[in-house]
């Protein structure tokens, strides 16, 4: 049975994590696949890790606790601890809906793609408007399109989602340490380097859900600056190659 490793980086998600893990486990089992759910908790102060510990004897869950914080490095640690053939990356606040996991996996299971991204910016995709005001939604949308299409010429419109499924083997020839740095800009680097290594990328429409508990950690303006410079660095390094790939 093919194993699917789901990486869940957490920081103060005690009110979401149990329901999320149960829902993900159920969705993967419906496909007759073996789930492996890996939680990387960055020193949450609300008891997130304690909630996960309650599930370890009941469900296929692994927990790794860290004292430092950092989204991309947490994801990288989860990938290193994973044993599945396919990796899923997703948020832990129900923005990324567990019911979309099966749709994310299908192009890979049918060998039609090596990496699939859940996209808000294609037909039938979108975002729950109570989670994002019009300025935030439009800024995110056109910022993502600018990075994807103008700067990097990616074959997808969404480059910032963080809701991904991919074959683990695509990482074999990539500089993972350089990719998984910072916050959400790891997604841009991963998509770009995957494309450059001639793997097939595709996207499916998703609608971001509403956070059920806690507060968002995202800061749009700061994120967009970081994403822009990450994309520019990728372009410059391809035009003027340096000794170290990004």
Summarize the structure.
This protein is of the alpha/beta class and 246 residues long. Helix content is 38%, strand content 18%.
Summarize the helices and strands and which ones pair or pack.
Blueprint: E1 3-10, H1 17-30, E2 34-42, H2 48-53, E3 61-66, H3 71-81, E4 86-89, H4 101-109, E5 115-119, E6 126-127, H5 134-151, E7 164-167, H6 176-179, H7 186-196, E8 201-205, E9 207-208, H8 220-239
- Name the CATH superfamily assignment: Spore Coat Polysaccharide Biosynthesis Protein SpsA, Chain A
Number of distinct helices? 8
Q: Distance N terminus to C terminus? A: 34 Å
DSSP strand count: 9
Q: Residue-averaged pLDDT, rounded?
A: 88
Helix % is 25-40%
Class from helix and strand fractions: alpha/beta
Share of β-strand residues: 15-25%
Q: Briefly, what CATH class?
A: Alpha Beta
Rg from Cα: 17 Å
CATH architecture descriptor name: Alpha-Beta Complex
Contiguous uncertain segments of 5+ residues: 241-246
- What spatial form do the alpha-carbon principal axes imply? globular
Largest sheet strand order: 3-2-1-4-7-5-8
Q: Please give the domain count.
A: 1
């Amino acid at each position: 049975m093919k194993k699917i490793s789901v990486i869940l980086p957490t920081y103060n998600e005690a009110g979401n994590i149990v329901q999320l893990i149960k829902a993900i486990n159920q969705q993967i089992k419906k496909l007759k696949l073996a789930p492996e759910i890996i939680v990387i908790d960055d020193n949450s102060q609300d008891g997130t890790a304690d909630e996960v510990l309650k599930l370890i004897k009941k469900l296929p869950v692994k927990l790794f606790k860290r004292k430092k914080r950092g989204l991309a490095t947490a994801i990288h640690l989860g990938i290193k601890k994973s044993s599945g053939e396919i990796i899923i990356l997703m948020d832990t606040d129900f923005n990324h809906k567990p019911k979309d996991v099966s749709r994310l996996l299908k192009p890979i299971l049918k060998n039609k793609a090596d990496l699939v991204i859940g996209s808000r910016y294609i037909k039938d995709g979108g975002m729950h408007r109570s989670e994002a005001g019009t300025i935030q939604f439009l800024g995110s949308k056109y910022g993502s399109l600018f990075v994807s299409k103008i700067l990097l010429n990616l074959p997808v419109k969404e480059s910032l989602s963080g809701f991904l499924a991919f074959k683990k083997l695509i990482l074999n020839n990539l500089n993972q340490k350089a990719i998984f740095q910072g916050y959400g800009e790891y997604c841009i680097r991963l998509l770009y380097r995957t494309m450059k290594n001639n793997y097939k990328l595709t996207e499916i429409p998703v609608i971001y859900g509403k956070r059920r508990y806690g507060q968002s950690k995202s800061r749009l303006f700061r994120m967009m600056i970081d994403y822009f410079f990450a994309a520019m660095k990728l372009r410059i390094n391809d035009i003027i190659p340096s000794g170290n790939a990004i």
